[in-house]
Amino acid sequence: MIKNEKNTFKLFLMAGVVILISILVYGMAQVWVFLSVSRANAAVFLEVKDTPDIYTPKLVWLPDEPVERPMEDFTRDILKRDYIRALYQRNLAMLNGDTLLIQDYYTALGREKLKRSISKEKAIIKEHIELEHHLQLNYYSADGQIIGFLDKATTEAERVWNKEKQMLAYDTDTLNYQVIMILEDGYWRIHNMKRVEVAPDLPKVDSVVVDFTKAELLSKILNAKGINYYPQEAPFKDFWINYDSAQVEKDFALIKKLKFNSVRIFINYEQFGKGMVIPEMMERLHHLLDVAELNQVTVILTLFDFNSDFNLFNFPATDRHLETILTAFRHHPALIGYDLKNEPDIDYNYQDSTLVNQWLEFVIAKARSYDPVRPMTIGWSNADKALNFKDKLDFLSFHFYKSPKLLKEDLLFLKKNAPEKKVVVSEYGKSTYLSKIFPFGNSKNSLFKALLSVHTVLEDNHIPAYFWTLYDFKEVASDVAGKMPWQKNPQKFFGIIDVDGKPKDAMKIFEHKAATFKPSLIDRIPPFVLTYLFLGAVFVLIIIYFKKLKQFFIYLINTRFKGLKDFSKK
Predict the structure, then answer these.
(1) Which parts pass through the membrane (predicted)?
(2) Which domain range does residue 117 map to?
C-alpha cells in the first residue's frame, strides 16, 4: 500500500514537472516566432483581391461631342461601372494569364482580341492598372444599344516581373483610346478598344486658394508641444469605429489644460473606406478638427494607418483616399500638416522595399497635387531611414524609443546629412509596464531618468516632439501589438495619465516641477524581483517541510481513495 502511495506521489510530481516544462517551451517558442516572423520579399505582389469594389480609378466625364441622342445620367453611371469592371478583369487576366473571367465584360469579338494580346507564358508577368480616365462621348445609337467614346489622357502604371517574382521594370504612361461598348443582357460590354492619337484637351484644374503659407504652417509644427492621441477606452482600431464625440471634446479640453498645443492622430485606411471614403467617417474627422480648433490645438494627420498593401492594384484606391480627405480639409485652420505613412520602414521587413518606396513616391506626388500648401513628412521608426525622400518632404520625422544616450547621435546624424531640413520627433516615450513574473520593464526610477534625459535633449536642441501618448489603455487588441502578454502589456502603459485618470510621474517633467524622482524603497525594486523572492521563500519552505507535506499529501490521497472505495461498496 505504501509503495503504491509513493508511486502515486511520484506520478503527480512528474506530471507537474512535464506541464511546467511544456508551458516554458511554448512560451519560448512564441518569443522565437515573434522575433523571427517574416514574409518573403515580393511574395505578396500577386495577392490581389478579386473584387472590383477595391479598384477605384478616377473617372471624369468631359463635355460630349455632338451625338445622335443625349445620354441619360443613369446610363452614364452604369456605363462607368461596367467600363471600370471590364478593365479591372482585363488587368487581372494580364496578371495571372487566365482569361476566363473576362467572359461577362467583353463581347465575342472583344474577347478574341483580348485573348490574343494576353500571353499565358509565365516567364513574364504584367501588373497593370489605370489611375485616371477622362471620357468624352462621341456616339450613342438611337436605340441606346451602342456607345462610342474617347478615353483621353488615361494615366496607366505597370510593373513587369519575371517568373522568380523579381521586378524587371516599373513605368507610367498617358494614352488615349477610342472605345466601343455594346449593351448585351443588361450589361455594357467592351466591343473594341483602340489606341488613338488625339489632343488631350482636358479642363484646367482650378488652383488651390491659399489660406496659410507653408512657412506659417511649418512654424506651428516647429513650435509644437505635441502629444499622440487616442481615447482611453478606444485606442488604435477601436477609435473611429467607436467614435465618441463627447469623449473627444473632454479629451481635447484636457489636452489644452495640460498645455499641449498640438496632437498627432491616425486615419485608419480600411475603416475610412479605402478608395470609397465613408461619409460618416468624414463627419467624425470634421468634428475632431473643429474641436481641436475650438481648443486652439493644431493637428497633424497621419494617413494610411494599418495599410500594408503596396500592390499596384491598390494605387487607385490610394489616390481616391487622398483626394477625398485632402481636398475636404485642406482649408481647415486646425490642420497644419500630414504624416503620409506611419513607420513604413517596418514594412521593409515583410515586403520588398522597392514596392513600399514606389507606393510612397506615388503618395507624395498625389498628396502634393491635392494640397500643395501643407507641410508633409513620413514618420519613420528609425532616424537613419528619415533621409528617404528627404528632398520631397518638408520636414523629417522619426520615432525614438531607444536608449536616451542615442538620441543626440540620431539628431547629429540628420543634421549632418540633411542640414537644410527641420526635424520632428513624432513619437517618443517609455512604457511603465513592469511584469510581475518576467524581467520585462524597468523600475520607476530608471524610467523617469530615461524620459527626463530624452526630454532634456529635445528641449536643449529645440526639437519639436509628440509624446506617446495621452492615456494608458485598459485593453489593446491582439492584432495591433500581438497576442502574447509581453507584446500587448507594454503597449498599454505609455500614457501620462493612468487607467484611473491620475497623472503619472512623467507629468512632472512636462510641468517642469521636478528634475529628479525620489522613489520609495518598493519603487526601487522591480515587481518580478519581489515575485521571485516570494517564490524562493515558498520553495525554501517546501524543502524544509518536505516530509510533512509528503505525509499530508499521502493522507489526502488515502482519504480520497478510501471514500471512493466505501462509496463503491455501497
Answers:
(1) 12-35, 525-546
(2) 52-196
